[in-house]
Model the fold of this input.
Amino acid sequence: MAKLRYAEALNQALCEEMERDPAVWLLGEDIGVYGGVFKVTRDLMERFGEERVRDTPISEQALTAMTVSAAMTGTRPVLEIMYADFLPLTVDALANQASIYNYIWAGQVELPFVLRTQGGGGAGAGAQHSKSLDAFVAHIPGLKVVAPASPADAKGLLKAAIRDPHPVIFLEHKLLYNMRGEVPDGEHVAEIGRAAVLREGRDVSVFATSRMVHEALKAAEALSAEGIEAEIVDLRTLRPLDLSAIVASVEKTNHAVVVNEGWTFCGYGAELSATIMDHAFDALDAPVERVGTLDMPIPYSEPLEMAVLPDAGRIAQACRRAVA
Amino acid sequence: MRNAPSVDDQLEMFRKMVVVRHMEETLGELHKAGKTRGPIHRCDGQEAVGVGATAMLADTDYITSTHRGHAHYIGKGLDPYRVVAEILGRETGYCEGRAGHMIVADAAKGMIGGNAIVGAGIPAATGMACSIRLTGRDAVAMCLFGDGAAQTGICHESMNIASLWKLPVIFLLEHNQYGLTVHSSRQSSVEDLSVRAEGYGMPGVLIDGNDAVAVYGAVAEAVARAKRGEGPTLIEAKTYRFDGFSTSDMGGYQPDGEIAEWRARDPIPRLRAALEGHIGEERLSAVEAEAHKEVDDAFAQALADPLPGFAGHPASRPYSEVS
Ligand SMILES: Cc1ncc(C[n+]2csc(CCOP(=O)(O)OP(=O)(O)O)c2C)c(N)n1
Done:
């Protein structure tokens, strides 16, 4: 096992999958010669050639639609959309094309493609480069949505996503690319749709995604000093959801807090919260608490941005309210 | 590959055009009788484009189509009975009644598929051409799209990429003059859309879309060019739809006499007249009668077929691995 950065783990997954399967190819803006603005595709063009690692024009709508049809016709494309903020440009290809064909064509085609993108705030990138639009894509039936929080999951889930016969939206986080962690060498394929309990606790379950998993872990440390033991569950996959893991944890702690970096109104946390109430209402001793980004554009200046984004402090507060 | 269709090729195009015309007319009657659901977009008058452009393609070539795709379906070799069954929402339709008339697909025939989002077939065919290239297949992808679709941003993005990457794709613009009800002159800054090809560095070809032989010739040349690795071609076929935009069309937006003027240029009698000298009236009439019977039988059978039950379909459940 090597200690790798999250970006390097993704690079390793892409490299290994391209080596394993000649049908895998990559396309996206600045991913080739330059190796991607977050360096996830570094050296891959040199290694696999310009046909399989394609620098593209700035044409998100066409590229996403092309990815969908290229997946239906015998290849496994991996598209990089530079920022999640640009997902609105891809929505036709996802909502009206990719997500419907398998069903409405009665199984005549498979759609094995991955759309990789990165989102999230905290880097001072402003209102058009900092959003978490997880709910946008998770809303659409027919898509899988994956959000790794660690380098090991980055590799394992990306390999799984590339091998999946369905479209997978793969959400990375800009503040995680430099995070280091142990990553298993070679064939390390994680299972899409399985959550992971990262810290056991008896008092409150915190269900978190992507970078918020780390904020939740920090919150758990602080709460522990106060005598509150929070169980931290990394959902890893936003859709399909690991319902049995969620229910098992709520049955153990009888309190739930949901944390997602997206906006709260009509957000992913709202879905999680409703799901918990649908499936584990009898186990709850208090209403589900929701933590997310404040419902407003994400500002630029540091104190403003930090005030808007969810963090360990707000997660801890929500846990205290839940168990009070 | 010949650029000019043989007499046999022309007779087959003629037969398919008659099939499509009779399908459209029958659908019009069924709509009036309240036996269809939703809007149906007939292509009467445009058969020479759809049938002529697909006549030289193999099952291994892909096409993407539009909301007005019946001539494309039949041209690409789909079975009229299963097309009609899909339009009537039957279990025996190509997509088991899930797609309806605008989004039909038959993957085995390379027809994936119709598309009710205007313009969306253009990048789709471009992506298929990427697959053809990456897997080293001897095939092409073609998108058939309207003059309305030509105004979408995605059309520009796709043509730029296709030409930049020299992809084996053919852009076949079916210029029937109208978007939904708005004339092309109110939608486009140029009259002939084929001139746009120059801006993408690809050939732009303007043809009479009511002449099936001309359509065949232009497309055959574009196919050969694409297969030689020289990249895409934009072919603009001028044509006209005789009937309304869809079964919901109230009309009133065409100038007086325009429909009659175009009816006089009906592509079916035109091909028939050209063929008469070669094969004689009797054989042509027999082909027509057979085509009509095939369509009538298809409708009779489809109308008697069962509607689908709502049941799970394992291949369509992306989340099935998780309880
Ligand atoms: C993106 C999108 N915008 C609008 C519509 C509604 N609409 C359906 S067909 C059509 C006109 C399309 O014109 P054209 O591409 O020339 O095709 P034609 O109907 O003439 O065959 C419109 C506006 C749609 N289906 N999709």
